[in-house]
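haha ok so turns out i had the wrong file open the whole time. this is the CORRECT one, sorry everyone. sequence first:
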Amino acid sequence: MYGNNYANIGSVNSNKPGTYLLRRVQDVGVPYGLNTTNPPPGYAGIINSPTTYGFILIRILLLNRGSDIDMVKAYQIAFNTELVERNYTSPPQPPALTVGLLAQGLSGSNEEKVLQLTARLAPYNPPEEVEMIGNVTRILELAGLKNGTYTQPADTNLTDATAVARLSVRAELMKPYLQQNFGNNWHQLIPEVSGNFGSDFAVRAYIAETALAQLTTEQALYPTFSPPNATDELLNVGADEAVMFTFSGKPPVVGFWSLTIYGEDFYLIPNEVGVYSLGDRSNITFADGAKIYSGGGVWNSTGDIRDGQFQILVQPANVVPPGNWTGNWLPAPSGGGKFLVNLRWYGPTGGLSDGKYVYPVVSTLTAMRA
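then structure:
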């Protein structure tokens, strides 16, 4: 329920298709996570959930071939869930997860509503680290969350408390030991606090607010670029400037990859060409105009033998580049402004984290005009 990615089933793990049983660890006294060793008859594995409530995301790679959409629809129809009666339910008995449980009866400021909802759900959704349950329960009680309700302690200001909490989270994230550096100013959180956060509640709070449902590092990497000597991860481009991302070669993934651009508000940047990211499913080209990815963008398909340096151009949405750059153009804010970029490697291979792959070099230049 708290956004911890505690189990993954799919092609990256080479899991078998079939039926998987999802159950609570509180009812069976086993560690959380996926277990495929000697599952009960009829099951390919068991998913042991640390919390009563949670969510599942299904990701299917669309290769942009003619039959892809129909194939994906067939997969979607084939996915289904059914309830299985439990033999035993550890107290307290959880209520059904409904819209009413999540929304009805909440009042006051946004901070108060969050605390009221947390108090309502906490008794049935303990921390996944069992040794933390006692400490977390005591901390929540000191903050006014007890027996499913929230009562604001005297002489407290929730607005100030929220500001202090955000500052403490940011300070935690800035600790060097939490960052894994990939070179050329690209970095991300270390594997120990990526996707499944354990007892690092500060990192979990940051991801919940900015990138809910982050995957663990064997499933995906999310490298972010930080400009040298900057205090944040925002880049800035002038009205007649561009930023060039020079890739050393095709990123070695078994899934797919993309470079996405966001505005200063962390939302996608409006633009007339409707391009918000580029990657292996895009019509990007080498400098000589040859397509980098053929056949709909499968990086290791038989038609994509060629490898080598290529570039992606980021410049204001109102400055259209020459025709030979339009396929490699990511529009930045019109008129110039601040923006954020994020790489996504789905199904990353070891070369993306062990230094073998050279990450993109980022440089500033005069905008290219048609």
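Residues 261 and 267 are 9 Å apart (CA to CA).
again sry for the mixup
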